[in-house]
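Hi X.,

You mentioned you wanted examples for the new student's onboarding notes, showing what a folding record looks like when two proteins sit in one file. Here is a clean example. The first protein comes first, with its sequence line followed by its structure tokens.
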Amino acid sequence: MSTRRRPTPEARERMRLAKLGEKNPMFGVVSPMRGKTHRPESLERMRANNLGQSNPMFGKRHKKSTLLKIQAWAKEHATYGPAHRNWKGGRFIHSEGYVLVLEPGHPYANPSGYVFEHRLIAEKALGRYLKPTEPVHHFNGNRADNRNANLVICQDQKYHNFIESRSRKLMKEGI
């Protein structure tokens, strides 16, 4: 069974005339506007008429009541979060390989409401929020591996750098 739509009568007539070729009554007739453009002075005049104060929309603003209606409509028809067609559950991988999770209420969330997953897991293990100066080290070097056993909470960046250099040495020696 075919699900193809049947052409409308107008479309059938156009197809019939197209098959006629030279016998088509419109064959060889060229549109009077074909290849024509506005003269440069006309283009300049049209541009000038729509610039600045001469533009009929210049200085127009929505009333406050209209703005509130627009905002309410936009909020009701939101296309972000779970309502968005490309929603993937509030998780994505950062360009540097870290996993980000949507946590809008978190005190250290970025402007979009996302927090690094390894920091959330470390905070849950500690029972408090981590300070921004407390880095979390991935023991195996895989930034997407956020198991408790793979995370080390460092007191400061200096200690984190020390751990990083030691891990690189051990990896180089093959231990």
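Then the second protein repeats the pattern, sequence line and then tokens:
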Amino acid sequence: MSGLLSKEKFMEMILMLDKDGDGTVDKEEFRGAWALTKADELSAVTRSAEGKVTAVDMDEFNGKFGAEYDALWAKVDADNDGNLTAEELAKFYGFTWAEVSGNAAEMSDDQILETLKLQAALESVSAKPAAAADGPSAAPIRDPRDPTIKSVTGKLDGPQESAEPEVAFLQALQANEVADVREAVTMKLVNVRCEEMASGEMPLHKLARGDGKRPTTEEWNDKDNEARYEQHKKLFVDLLNLTKEQCEKGEAGADHFKTDVNHRDKKGKSPLAIAIEFNRRKIIMPLIKAGADPMLTNDQGWNILHSAVNADDVQLVKEIVACVASPARMKVLVEQTDKQGRTPLHIAAYKCNEEGGVVEYLISLVPKAVASKADAAGNTAGDLATKGGRRRSRDLIEAHAQQNAQ
């Protein structure tokens, strides 16, 4: 279970704890979240239709656990400044913060369980933030449905009663059964213009995700992995070509190929967005050449540059810049804000490893005023770097903002 915890997870919890959006987490905000973890010991509890705890009676909580909470807050707010940081929260639960990715090895089983319990409580009550006034309009959760795409219903995990080849194909993609997928694509055994209705994903989405693991920079640089990445690229290009062929020969027509390539799932993600999210560098250019639109955003307002910096791989970010190859489009991607009013620089400042070079490279792309732009909660990228304990990133961002201001 300790593998579920990382610096990033604690940073995400801090963002969820900041209920009033002022950029800080105070004693009362943490009280509300910690109270949810005591729901089993309280009588007045509100639950969702799924049974998740969404609220407790705070009067009952304070009467029963008020003194215990005051003592806990004194410990968790280690510097006694009245505000909780991700590092303080992590250390309170026994997580080692000093290493690059952090280390949960020293956490006891009880500490791990308590941390996961708090995380689950936060996720059960976290609502999607409102769109920032100057942010992009949200992408539709679904694009208008193409009636020539075959619908596949039901869940793909577990045994299937259906004998339809599309079901078996999507199931093989879901389980990353590469040999079965390769055979179906190479032998042209299946209609690849199909869609899993539960997720809205087509085969291109699922193959773009691959095994669901995001390669690190070190893994990309490891020559032992090169053949595997090339094989994935070849299979993906074969799937692209088969999709195009079936569009041209079927009732859909050639024009529908570009629609398939840009098909967005129920989270507003195109195959290109998923490829970038999972750091599949080698299939980005084939998708662009096939007509993938690099300017699409998902239902949270993230564009491909938001997703690229979130993967924390500077080479991936450079690949995006090379693929877009348009100063005007690149300016839009750099300046575009998501539903929380955050540019890609905000995301990089909060999440990216300082030694990886993402922030430093992104700053070279940022035009005047973007470096000092505040998000919907009033946080600049420098502020978020500070909250994440990334002082070097903060200094780089603030120095760049000051230069632009002169």
